[in-house]
Amino acid sequence: MTAAPTASGGNSRLGTAVRAARRLVFYPAAALALPTLSAGVGLAVMLVVVAALGFPPGVVAPAFIGAVMGDAERLSATLLLACPLMIIGTGLALSFRCGVWNIGADGQYLVGALAGAATAPYVGGWPSAAALGACLLAGVAAGGLWAAVAALLQYSRGVPDVLATILLNFVAIQVLSIVVRGPLADPLSADRDTTAAIPAAAEIPLLYGPGGLHAGIALAVFLAAMLSVFLSRTTWGLRTRIVGLNPIAARFARIPVAAYACGAFVASGAMGGLAGAVEVCGNTHYLTGAYSAGYGYTAIAVALLAGLRPLGVIPAALFFAALESGSRGMQKMPQAGLQDFPTVLTFAAQGVVLLVSVLAARRALERREAA
Amino acid sequence: MLALRGITKRFGPLTALDAVDADFVPGEIHAVLGENGAGKTTLMNILYGLMRADAGRIELDGRPLRIRRPADARAAGMGMVHQHFMLVERMSVAENLALSDVGTGFWTTPAAAAQRTEQAARRVGLEVDPGRIVEDLSAGQRQRVEILKALMRDVTTLILDEPTAVLTPGETAALFDALRRQRGSGGRIVFISHKLAEVTSLADRVTVLRRGRVVYTGPAAALSAAELAERMMGGRETKSDVAVPGAGRPQAASPNPGAVGGGDGAAPGAAVLELERVSTDVGHPRLEHVSLRVHRGEIVGVAGVDGNGQAELARVALGLIGAASGRIHWHRRDKVDALAGARPAHIADDRQREALVLPMTVAENAVLKDLGRRPFSRFGWLNRRAITSHADALMREYDIRAASLGVAVATLSGGTQQRLVVARELAGRPALLVAVNPTRGLDAAASAFVHGRLREHGHSAGVLLISADLDELLALADRVAVLYSGRLTPLSNVPRPLRNTERVERVMVQIGRLMAGLPPSEETE
């Protein structure tokens, strides 16, 4: 080995310290640069559009921030939106890192919510922890199975993952609607399009009562952290990344590629299902026939903005949740002239953020390959 | 006359083309022959404007020709038929031709397109059905459409890149008839190939490329297929980047010098790999009844042109594909140490695809295949310290020049990447090493390093060296067989020392004939 390029490569304590410091400072900074840029450009475009529509940015910006986190209730609402995005986004980061393009998180989320709501009436008499655990596990199992269908289609019949998962989304929407109007329908509801409320034993404990903020957000952060540890510290995690980056080399290294891909597929589906059950048990407490809020799709944007880094999913989910809750809350803000504020701008901003992050990631990738 | 003068192209430290001259004469079929990676496609891409040369010029009838993009090449009367067809699958033959036909105006009718197609087909003498959908056509028919597409414009130079790679023998014969007709009408035909039989049967003139240099150019009839094979694979000219053959290798390894066939008697140690009449049902071509034994302390060479079962044989030897019939056996009793034996080591020619994960770090790549083993992991948890210190030791021992263990492998040069692969694969001193064109794409220094390590490893372990480079095989291997069209010839001992040119010549001629798919000469020792 040559001495010159490895000033930090020796065994000296100084070298170790320098490396540790670099990892702490440099690496997260580089990792944060792209997402921050994307988010910034997205927000800037949103402001320009808003200004063009005749809303002065000087009024809009503070109102927006107020709508996102002006008081504890608003902050709770934002965090409630972030919770499913974070859980689903973590699962998607796992599957995308393994090279599996699971676009069906929305369907997996719906069947998870359905399973949670369907389980709840049977476990109402159980101790709270057991009842909640049963509902969440039902959601995990349902989401995992739903993704397993797509995995099976891909690995036994060659149906591309993107196609199989996205088509299963539509099936899930119909299944949910049929079950909610049929077997699970609340007989007391006028339009028979909602289920009865789940028993109290199956509810997730609240962190902040007035805002309805439940402990699911803590679970979401915990899961993202767990995935980060999994990917960086375990053999399975490293192999998952190898399979995602170069499946051919993985085969030559005797890694069972299909098994890892299927595992990531099912695990990401299970996360989607968990998010659905958490939403039912923590937030809404009942199901409606049209339950999809598009979290499964927004979570794709979350995972991509996070650069597929599990810890990046946390701020990315918060960012998209803030966009959404800010736009929703704008019309209710006290500042003058915001009654007609167009909520749909959120989608435009989401799109811009996504485009910029994808483009920037591509540029970074190309530069890396060119080097 | 279309002439290339001093065409040079470098990719980083690698010289892909080194002052290449070639003359393409009207009314002649000119074959450009060479191994994969010899620079054929690069040369044609430069001629057709898909790439730019670093130096050199192109002349047409004595006047300089500036070709900066394919449109310039087309304006100069060139047409190219790519190896991979560029057709719209869902459209009919006539529609595909109309797409590229300058004669098609803005308004056209299916009938008009069909008529133009038929006219062109008749003129050129290629039979196509204008109404057929391309999707439904065989490879040979598609290629006819491609050629027609090129010839519909007034093409004076037709370039075909490995045109027979996807064709059946019958389709190949039909293609050759069409090309001969085209030659009769005064066109230049440039034909890229690595198949010797085709070149000898079709070409008037041949240019042989080897490692980016022209090693022969002249009438095709002047050389036999075997002589062409020798030129293509090297061996005639002494090359500086191959270390002195046989150096440091005990002559006792060949107690039966000069023997042809069999080879078991020459076993220097216990067998580490045995293939007995192995046939596969996957791959193209499939292996047919391949028998082979690799012993400890020897390097067994498999010569041959890529695409004759080389990749399949490597995968079989590595245990990645099973035998449809026959028997594969790895002997692992005598493990050298904890890492050895469990898996055969593999040095790939396409290291970026098969051996490395480019965006991952040097350290991660260094333990890619040993993640599940202690000390690199325990109960599924990675031991980063052990991984780092192992990678660090490899970097020192194999002189891998990376800025740190934490940089992505993608940032390393090709030679450094291959050093890393060699280091990783040989670190556990595996009983069996499978090396496939281990120096392809490497510069002289990196090649010498790889050869040195292979030779050293061959002292104690068994090495299966599958290579298209005859110099490499003669310099390293104790015994050589030829893999042609999925069949392996019996092994011959490589005469030592290599300076005995007469005996070397004889072996070379034989190997050359076998690689060209000809029977070995009657005269054997």
Structure in words:
The complex is a heterodimer of chains A (371) and B (525). By secondary structure, chain A is an all-alpha fold. Chain A has a domain at 85-293. Chain A is built from 13 helices and 2 strands; from the N terminus they run ααααααββααααααα. Chain A has a two-stranded antiparallel sheet with strand order 1-2. The two termini of chain A are 22 Å apart. The relative contact order of chain A is 0.19. By secondary structure, chain B is α/β, with parallel strands linked by helices. Chain B has helices spanning 40-47, 70-75, 93-100, 110-124, 139-152, 169-184, 196-202, 225-233, 310-318, 351-354, 362-366, 384-397, 414-427, 444-460, 470-476, 501-515; strands spanning 2-11, 14-24, 29-33, 55-60, 63-65, 78-81, 157-161, 188-193, 205-210, 213-219, 271-279, 290-295, 298-303, 325-330, 345-347, 377-378, 381-382, 432-436, 462-467, 479-484, 487-488, 492-493. In chain B, the strands form 5 sheets. In chain B, strands 13, 15, 18, 19, 20, 21 and 22 form a 7-stranded mixed β-sheet that branches. A 6-stranded mixed β-sheet of chain B has the order 6-7-8-3-9-10, sandwiched between helices. In chain B, β7 (157-161), α6 (169-184) and β8 (188-193) form a beta-alpha-beta unit. The chains are: A mainly alpha (371), B alpha/beta (525). At the A-B interface, α8 and α9 of A face β17 and α12 of B.
List keywords for this structure.
heterodimer; A: mainly alpha; 2 strands; 72% helix; 1% strand; disordered C terminus; B: 525 residues; alpha/beta; Rossmann fold; 7-stranded mixed β-sheet
